[in-house]
Amino acid sequence: MTLLLDTNVVIWLLLGERRSIPDDVADSLGSPAETVLVSAASVWEIAIKRSLGKLRIGDNWYAALMGLDLNHLQVSAAHAVGVEDLPWHHRDPFDRILVAQALAEGAVLVTADRSLDAYAAPTWWGGPSRR
To answer: What is the pLDDT of residues 95-118, one digit of tens each?
Structure first.
């Protein structure tokens, strides 16, 4: 299965807050059977939050991210265009691009954010998939 991490999950991994992630999700993230993706959009969101002082995370956060066993997913033009067809359940541009990427890549979006369940992309936060 291909898993795309929501930014909140990436932040928890970087902060070492595994307790914030359900055990079955954490186990899947470490499984060689899973392809785990982190989007360039999440990197961008973290950088913006840091620059605004809304996220306290070490200066070496990007190097730490690169050291995790994750596959990096760039934002393509096709992903960006995919946002156009999404319903306007909410206006967070980072969530919207992650949903578009999950749909385009056939990935399950790993997120604690229940508002993303309103989109057509499958989401998961432990237990059975929400869709």
So the answer is: 999 999 999 999 999 999 999 999
Order the strands of the 123-124 sheet from edge to edge: 71-73, 35-39, 2-5, 108-110, 123-124
Q: Which CATH number fits domain 2-124: 3.40.50.1010, 3.30.390.30, 3.30.470.20, 1.10.10.10?
A: 3.40.50.1010
The model's pTM is 0.95
* 66 residue type, one letter: M
Q: Report the candidate in 43, 87, 84, 80 with the shortest Cα–Cα distance to residue 61.
A: 43
Amino acid at site 94: F
> Could you give the dihedral angle defined by the CA atoms of residues 89, 93, 98 and 101, in that order, rounded to the nearest 10 degrees?
100
Judged by phi (left if over 0) then psi (alpha if -120 to 50, else beta), residue 126 lies in: left
* Interatomic CA distance for residues 39 and 36, integer angstroms: 10
Which element (helix H / strand E) includes 98?
A: helix 93-105
Q: How many CB atoms lie within 10 A of CB 62?
A: 15
User: How far apart (Å, rounded) are the C-alpha atoms in residues 116 and 27?
Assistant: 22
